Structure formats: structure tokens, C-alpha cells
Predict the 3D structure of the following.
Amino acid sequence: MKPADSNREQRSRFTLWQLISYGFLTAPLAMGGFALVMFVPTFYAVDLGLGLGLVGGIFVAGRLFDVITDPVIGHMSDETCSRFGPRKPWMMVGVPGFALAVFLLLMPPEGAGLGYLLMASALYFLFYTVLDVPYSSVGLEVSPHVHERSVLASSKAAFQIIGALTVALVPFALALPVAPSLSLVAKLVLITSLVGLVLFLRFVPVRTRAVTAGKAGFVASLKTIWASAPYRLLILCFLIVQAANALSAGLMVLFVTHVIKAPQMIGLFMGLLLLSTALFLPFWVMLSKWRSKRFAWQASILLCCVNLLAVLFLGEGSIMGAALVSMLLGACFGCDAIMPTSVLADIVYTGEQEGKNRLGGLFLALKNSVSKLAFVVPMGLAFPVLEAVGFNKSGDNSSFQLMTLVFFYALLPLGLRLVACLLLSRLPLVAENGRERTSTRSAVEAA
């Protein structure tokens, strides 16, 4: 790169419109993902009569399928060479494939059975990855500015919340039953995904970088990534925090129903959680700029620990307390979404300098795989223990059974977060404009 080009890159910043154009495509991805979690399993299991166990097994298998396909597609995206760059060809295939898969999954024909669900869900999981991994990888490599990487991550997080709220609120506001609601979501996904792709291709300034190194194999790329000590530490902390979040989010309905005894408030608490996530995004970005990304993430973790400790003082009828807990959980979830991605961008951006191989797609895909594995925790750990102590999901429970629920909802996540906070103290700090405590390069090469 010529010196003039380098100076121009260092001065470049994303405008508000470019940030919107970058993050917009996250909304249809979130719509499809939220519908998959909240409505689709029950629709196929109950409305179409396939059964809860069978449908649940199919979607768990789909998540495990993702754990395999994410790194493979991430690596293939890294190694793609085209005049449009490595990411755009995958996105141009991923958008129509994802929209079609959503249509098939959310609008099944009359008489659809197990075979149809297997086919539609397989296409969904595959094309979600084909679109999401290359698209999200752009955020790791597009900006030379440390703080702007947090802003880019917050843009995606904001549109993720918009997508989830759209699926949660629009069918409710229109008073639609399940089948018409899913049909509406499918049409919204089609429209917004096409709009998002056009905005991205037209307005997002994707950074081009010459790669002079020869193509690297999948195993060699994995070894290169694993050799990064900061990445290993980041992924470990991310896994611990995501497992804690999975327990609190996955058991929230049971907690509100059996401890607070206000099942009619579940929708409100979920809405407060999502809205709080969105409202606090600018705060975490500003805090990370003022101090550091590590400081912001640790502050969020400690705030969440205090919040979870307060759960011990809640009981039947504690509506205001439960609402506050939901809001603070949402606030902390937002930081958990932004900071790991932004720190990963610091590691990836510097590691890809001087003609080295692209690794951003594989870096991100492994992080995604860890996230998906972490969210199996409530099903794999908490639910079996609750069943073993005789927890009744539809009736009254003893104080011991309720305390077991509180342990998995609040106390175990609190302990996990404290461990992550301690580990984060070893994460190298990166700042802009010569204010580095530990440089990005030393962070990448540290052993």
C-alpha cells in the first residue's frame, strides 16, 4: 500500500449512514433466529403434531451441525479470491438462500411432516452460516481504528435487537395467530434481507488488502489461530460468560413463573430486557473509549454479578424487583455482545497485516461455535438437575426445588462471571493514538 493510501485509510471513518448500511443486514438474520427459537419448535411440535421431543432433537442437531459448518465456511470465505473481495460473493449467495430457507421453514405446505422439517431446517442452518459468517467477518477487518470497531459491533447489536423486537411485537400488535404470524415474518425477512444486501454492497466501504502469502490449509489455519494466546484467553472468557447468560436467559420463564409467580408478566420482562440492551449500547461504547474495552467488559460483568445477587431477595409478587433485574440483565448482555467482538477485531486486524493470510472468517466462526455450544448449557445441565430434584414446571414446588432453580438462574451464573472477570485481567489492553498500554501487535504475538 502506498503511503498516501495508508494515510487516507487512517483518516477514514464510517458515517452514520454507512454504519446503518453495515448493520442493517443483521435485522433479518435476527428475525429468522428469534422466530426459530420462540415460535417454530412449538408450531411444528403442537400445531403440526410432530411432537416436542422429535422437534427439539432436530433443532439441537441443527445447532451441532452449525458447530461444524461455521469453521468450514469461515475458512472457505477467508481463502476466496474474487474481484469483489472474499466476503461479498458468499453474501450474494447467502441472502437469497437464507430468504428461501426462512420461507420454507416458516410457511410449510399442508401435510408437512418430519422429512419436510429436516430439509427446511438443514437449509436454514446452512444458509444462515453462509450469510452470517462472511458478513460478520467484514466487521473484524474493515476499520483501522480501535474504537470504531466497537461502534461497528454496536451497530450490528442494535439491529439484532430491532429484528428480535419486530418478530416479538408485530404479530402481537396485529393480533395474529401463529401461522399468519410466521408467514408475515417470512415476508419481512425476504424484504429486509434484500434491502440489507443492497445497502451493504452500495454504501459500506470494504477494506481491500493484498495477500502475498500462499493459501493455507484448514488445519494450518487452525494452528495459527490457536497459537494466539490473547485469542485463547478471549474465547475462554467468552465461553464462560455465554454459559452464564444461557442459564439466566434460558431459565427466566421458569423463574418468573414459579418464584415471582407472575407468568402474565413474562412478555413485559422480555421486552424490558431487549430494550435495555439497546439503550445501554452507547454507554458501553463510550466507556470502552474512555478507559478500555477490558474495563468496560469487566464493569458490565461486575454489575451483572450485583444484579444476580439481588435475585436472592426476590419472591412472590416482587414485580418491580424482577423488572429491574431484567433491565440490568439486558444492559449487561449488550456489553457481552459488543466487547468480545471488538477485541477480536483488534486481534484479527493486526494479525492480517504485511500480506499474511486472511483468518477473520475462521476466527469469527470458532467464536460463533463456542457461543452455540454455550447455549446448550440450560438443556444439558440445569434441566436434568431440576428434573432430578422433582421440579414441577406446571405446579407448586418446595423451597428446596425453588432454591435449585435460583441457583441455576442466578448463583451459578454469578460464580461463572466472577471467574471470567478475573481471567480478563490478563487480557492485553489496546488504545488508539499512542495511548497503548500493550500494543495490538504484542497482543497478537504474545505467548
Remarks:
- Residues 319-351 form the longest helix (33 residues).
- Residues 1-11, 431-447 have pLDDT under 50 and may be disordered.
